[in-house]
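Worked example 4.2. Below are the chains of a multi-component assembly; read each line carefully before continuing.
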Amino acid sequence: MSTAPPSTPLPPVRTPAWPLSRSAIGLWVTQGVLAALVPVLGTVVFAFAVPDSAGGPLPVLRWLLPVLAVVYAVVVIGVRPWVRFRVHHWEVTDEAVYTLTGWLTRTWTLVPISRIQTVDVTRSAMQQLFGLATVAVLTASSQGTVHIPHLSADIAQRVADDLARRAERVRDQAT
Amino acid sequence: MSAPPRQQTATTAGVRTSPLVVLVHTITFRQARRFAGSFLPLAALIGIRGGSTTAVLVIGAVAVFSLVTAVLSWWRFSYADGPASVVVTRGLLSRSVRTVPNDRVRGVEIETPALHRVFGLVRVRIDAAAGAMKDDEEELVVDGVTRAEGDRLRVSVLTHRSGPETTGDDGAAGTPIEEEFTRFDNRWLLYAPLVGSYLALPLAVAGALYRAVDDLPDSVLPALPGPDLAHPGAIAIVAGIAVVLLLLGSVVGAALVNWGFRLVRRGGSLIAVRGLVTRRHTELEIDRIRGVTVSAGLGMRLVRAARVNALMTGLGDAGRRGQLLPLGPSSEAWRLARRLVEDPGPLVAHPPAARRRRLGRALFPGLVVTVAGLVALTVGWWELLATGVVLLAAGVPLGLGRYAALGHVTGPRSFAVRSGFLIEEQAILQPRAVVGWRVRQTFFQRRAGLATVVACVGAGGGGYAAVDLGAADVAAFTSAASEPWSEALSPAVP
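Applying the procedure described above to all two chains together yields the following structure tokens:
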């Protein structure tokens, strides 16, 4: 597939203009380390607890499990944060809020400011460590929620205030 | 019912419901029911220990308990409809006062269960749209007012709105001009055995009966000789009877719910009336209709039947209340749908890559089982391989059928998307219904040049998807299907 002329197919819709804060990479790496901890510890326990003499598929598992654990750890710590940072973009235009999130599966979400119902800013414990915050824009539709993750906290607050004020002004009463 | 509007204060006295409702609730154990769980084992225990005198005493005590709870809840419940809002006060110990502004009310439903009809009462459900509310709090229920009072309440709530066009309807309300949209033909009941939800109805009844019998102590059950299941003929007969009962039950169930269904337009409202034992009277505002869905299950498509639901902003319990045609021939369904939302035209099929993707997804489980079956063959199991082959064979029509269901189209004043195989659903929506777009592309969709586009809608299921659209068509579709703000998606914008 690497020899095909367009190495990356064109995205179906426009990519939003602005990248996230670079601190998001640090946060994702930390999350990756935590996520990799469980399978790695599991493998270590497996290696010590299972005797060498055990039969069946166990000899295969003795080398397969560590390999899988290492691959998983490399992907979630070394690859996924950077791919995510390259994919994630966001933008607030005159009329709408627009985001692109994901890494393997990508999701573009566009919500017009006139249909915004509420704007939330949340900061999880880990986000606070990295000085980040998530802006959630809610509409009348349960599926029409925009999350702009991992903006630096002051930008998030400014965006949320700005959106809430503009939504108040142009709110479409029809919905 | 005093003529001058009451002051809207927190201490508004309000009006009680009809005292007759105490009788209804005593008989139906409406309030006492929630304690039934703790009562049943106790009653059963006493029933076993004591003789018939104790049993009578227990029944008497339960009846008195039911009466007391019914009286208490009647006494503590009041409602008041002011010029701008409805206030309902209730609660035995902790009082709750709910105030719903009239312009938040999306619809009023008047329900007449059989027992209510005996006493000339109705139950009024006021649909108070509130997105953040839990399901059971989405409506105000005023249970047990006289029919005339129920009608007065409905008119009062629906006409005291702060809108110029609804006050205009006031005059028309005096001389209602009715226009009939649909009238249920009883022959349509024959479709019921092909509809999953109606088939499930007798099963649910059987399940409830079984559980009730199971709860009773064995000593009170007569020892019936069970059928001799060892005999092969007996099993066939029992199964045959069960199937016949199931079919009959589904038709009876459909008749109970839909008997005498009529959909009429009166002024700015659509009014649906239906039900055999419990009559329901649902009123929906035409102004709030943003679209319709026409859906049909696999069985219904065989006989060309369909159902129609309205997509209304902020309608609670939309699946039941938004029903415009519960069951009927698809020609009738489409006639009704076109009457409410402009037909955008015939659907456009999705690209061949979408067919490959549907087929691939449908064949994948069969493929996995087949490969596992080939491995298992080495140990002498052929059943797994056979299952895999059957799954593979079944996957072909499934995949093709799912692809055939996919489609989308945009018209000048509406657009439509269709998907689903077991239940095929086509949503026809107005551009103003869309409150957001969500475009999703998985890794494999990106390779195949496809994308799934979800139109987020503040009504019905929350979103309607055009599955596996060609990636190049996405921007054109979204900008044609919604208002100018969606131009932000098109790649041409700098």
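Take a moment to check your reading of the output against the notes. Chain B touches chain A at residues 131, 290, 313-314, 432-433, 435-443, 446-447, 449, 451, 454, 456-459, 462-463, 469, 471-472, 474-475, 478, 483-486, 488-491, 493 (CB under 8 Å). Residues 1-12, 131-135, 162-174 of chain B have pLDDT under 50 and may be disordered.
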